[in-house]
Amino acid sequence: MSQTFRVPVGEVVERCQHHLTLLAPGSEPAAITEHAISLALSSKRTQKETELLLGDVLRDSRRTVLRSQARRLRLVSDLGRLASDGIATGGLSGFADYETPEQRVLAREFIALLRARAEEIGGATPRVLAGLLISETESETAQAVGTSRSTVTRARRALRAYAAEQGYQPLAA
How far apart are CA 85 and CA 95, in angstroms? Predict the structure, then answer.
């Protein structure tokens, strides 16, 4: 029977950092490895044998990163017509090309309406709109604003309600 011993988390972090140097910056495996380092450093994580701890943090990190990507894609889908018109595309492929000058004008006018409404609402809402347009997650926006995720959710809900009042209709999925 093998004896389980406690290994400093530092060994797992070093292995992840070494692996990170072999990966393309910004790639999905790099994001997973970077998040694994954060998980390994968590004070809530139980220390285990190096291989078990490494496997655990990589598995948990992969699940977290993929879930985050899925949420980002869902957000783009929820934006419906805004995404198809190139106003917000999820940040994955940049802004879409507008087909006509009229579409550019309509998009700018619609964003201007949303910005004006965000200013009327006040508080963190203008920054929440900016985060929405660059496809930040609710958590990313909340962290940037220094407020709770529920506050960001309420602000987004208010902006979507206003957009619907102005005639915005998401495309059917």
Answer: 9
Give pLDDT tens digits for 9-36: 778 888 888 888 888 888 888 888 888 8
| pTM score, whole prediction | 0.43
Dihedral in degrees, nearest 10, Cα atoms 51, 18, 25, 52 = 10
Q: Tokens for 32, please give them.
A: 């997973």
Question: How far are the Cα atoms of 7, 46, 75, 108, 140 from residue 146, in angstroms, in the given order?
Answer: 36, 30, 21, 28, 10
What gap in Å lies between CA 30 and CA 47, rounded to an integer? 23
**Nearest-10 crossing angle of helices 138-145, 149-165:** 110
Pairwise CA distance, residues 36 & 15, whole Å: 11
The residue type at 136: E
- Name residue, tokens 């309420």: 154
Instruction: Provide the residue ranges of all domains of the chain, joining segments of one domain with +.
Output: 9-72, 80-165
| Strand, coil or helix: 73 | helix
Closest CA to 13 of 40, 35, 53: 40
Which segment of 67-76, 79-88, 111-120 scores lowest on mean pLDDT? 79-88
**The amino acid at 6:** R
* Cβ proximity of 54 and 11 under 8 Å: no
